[in-house]
Design brief:
Layout (H helix, E strand, L loop, with lengths): L2 H30 L1 E5 L2 E2 L5 H13 L7 H14 L4 E4 H11 L3 H8 L1 H4 L7 E6 L3 H12 L7 E8 L6 H10 L11 E4 L4 E4 L2 E7 L16 E5 L7 H4 L8 E6 L25 E3 L3 H17 L1 E11 L25 E3 L3 H8 L7 E8 L5 E9 L5 H14 L6 E4 L16 E4 L4 E3 L2 E8 L3 H15 L4 E3 L10
Parallel strand pairs: 1-3, 3-20, 4-5, 4-9, 5-8, 9-10, 10-11, 12-14, 16-17
Antiparallel strand pairs: 1-2, 6-7, 7-8, 12-15, 13-14, 15-19, 17-19, 18-19
Helix pairs in contact: 1-2, 1-3, 3-4, 3-5, 7-13, 10-11, 10-13
Length: about 475
């Protein structure tokens, strides 16, 4: 057999394995509310080539290679066992089984035990107030998470009418995105009912400019969590207007909260959320990206002080071309200039991680890219660090710790910002860029300031709704000298 034929046969064999995974992944989600991933990269909705690409991608990002046959075997076994609602990392199960030496069924039953008694709870209605960059990405994630319908249910969006064909335009923006690509599935409109229908999910479009006067119950929506994506109100007084509307139970702001408003970074202080917290903030994209990394470093080495410099993609509040803007410098063209801007992210870290209060300063530079940003952390540590030791620690944190949903790690001389579009993690440590000289360290942390942040927002929503899935395999504490 010549090389061409051998490569062709190998590719066809790999395709066949990937094809067999698709119905398993789909049925686990629909029937059991089980979300499957490969080192955090979701498998649901992927095509045959998409599954193959994910296997190649996790290896390229520095993870151990996962054989397709092993992935299929674990998926088949998980489907046969039938755990309850959970988030299951198939790659970690493959690795764990290989290291255990156990029979696969016995190993999986032990690892999946926390989800065996998991029962679906009552669904929670979600309303998106504002349908811009974050609002549409939240819609995509919530629709993909619909599963058996027992968790978060996207019921409505609230916007100001923009034109006569507003509904069609909103649907088109959900379907097509210049940065994140086409929506995976079908989007239609029901003009008579004023609804967008996405993959069978009917989303009521409500036109209003007053958050306090909407009767959500008229649309069958009750005890909803309203996610305010407008940023018009950022304190408790302003956001409490939503609670005056009929059918609203709680409010989540997708921006840094002001005053006494509790700012939540999932993985850091989400355990402080109580049923009495009716209004919360999900902090900022930058705060979500850097706080988990800072926590990990502080636990291992101790942080004396630090400065955070963010190289941030431009946002919709900047001008495309030079024009008047009430903010300093932001009137200059976002697509032609680097623009120095203020950021409160460094100070905001202390609202989620009080032990770093007063230790951090921060600044930002807006640059002509549409998405993905980079935080440069200049840190002075209590204990000296070596690059290899620090990187190994952060790599293990990203793979095994309780911060695994928040922190990713990459070692590649070729990655650039667009490689991180669509990352589910809050921040990705670039190991090759790490600098460590005794007690002085510089870390580079990439983050998708749109999609990665939106994933963090959904995790906070799940905690508020009591529907955050059991995460398996169980994560463990990772220390510097493991």
């Amino acid at each position: 057999m010549n090389d061409f034929a051998a490569h062709r046969d190998d590719w066809m064999a790999r395709e066949e394995l990937a094809e067999r995974m698709i119905p398993l992944v789909g049925s686990l989600t629909r029937e059991r509310d089980v979300v499957t991933s490969l080192h955090g990269h979701r498998l649901l909705g992927l095509s045959t080539t998409g599954i193959l690409e994910v296997h190649e991608r996790v290896e390229a990002l520095g993870h151990r290679e996962v054989d397709l046959a092993d992935t299929l075997a674990v998926l088949e076994a998980v489907r046969a066992i039938g755990p309850g609602a959970s988030s299951i990392d198939i790659a970690r199960l493959v690795e764990g089984h290989a290291a255990s030496g156990e029979d696969l069924d016995a190993y999986l039953r032990r690892e999946l035990a926390p989800a065996m008694e998991s029962q679906p709870g009552e669904p929670t209605d979600v309303v998106l107030y504002g349908f811009g960059r974050i609002g549409r990405l939240l819609a995509r994630i919530l629709i993909a998470h619909t599963g058996g319908g027992n968790g978060l249910r996207l019921r409505a969006i609230v916007v100001r009418r923009g034109s006569d064909n507003d509904l069609v335009k909103r649907a088109s923006l959900l379907l097509r995105d210049s940065v994140h690509g086409r929506f995976e599935g079908n989007v239609e409109v029901d003009e008579d009912a004023s609804q967008i229908i996405a993959n069978g999910t009917r989303i009521q479009v409500i036109y209003s400019d007053d958050p306090a006067t909407i009767d959500y119950t008229a649309y069958g929506i009750r005890d909803a969590i309203v996610v305010d994506n407008t940023g018009r109100w950022r304190d408790e007084e302003g956001l409490s207007q939503h609670l005056a509307s009929t059918g609203v139970a709680r409010v989540l702001l997708t921006a840094p909260g002001k005053g006494a408003l509790k700012n939540i970074v999932h993985g850091i202080n989400d355990a402080t959320i109580t049923p009495e917290d009716r209004i919360l903030s999900a902090a900022s994209c930058t705060t979500n990206a850097i706080t988990p990394v800072l926590k990990a470093v502080d636990e291992a080495y101790g942080i004396v002080r630090g400065h955070v410099e963010t190289v941030h993609s431009f946002t919709n509040d900047q001008n495309l071309i030079d024009n008047f803007h009430k903010g300093d410098r932001r009137g200059r063209s976002a697509v032609l200039n680097m623009v120095i801007a203020e950021t409160g992210a460094a100070k905001a870290v202390a609202r989620a991680l009080p032990e770093l209060a007063g230790k951090l300063t921060g600044s930002a530079i807006r640059v002509p890219t549409p998405d993905v940003s980079l935080a440069v952390l200049h840190l002075t540590l209590e204990r000296p660090a070596e690059k290899e030791q620090l990187n190994d620690y952060l790599r293990r944190v990203s793979l095994h710790s309780k911060l695994r949903q928040q922190i990713d790690y990459v070692e590649s001389p070729e990655v650039v910002s667009t490689d991180f579009v669509g990352s589910h993690r809050a921040g990705i440590v670039d190991g090759l860029a790490t600098i460590a000289t005794d007690n002085d360290v510089v870390l580079y942390v990439w983050y998708d300031n749109e999609y990665g942040y939106s994933c963090q927002v959904v995790r906070v929503l799940e905690v508020m709704a009591g529907s955050h899935p059991v995460v398996l395999p169980t994560r463990r504490e990772v220390t510097l000298h493991d």
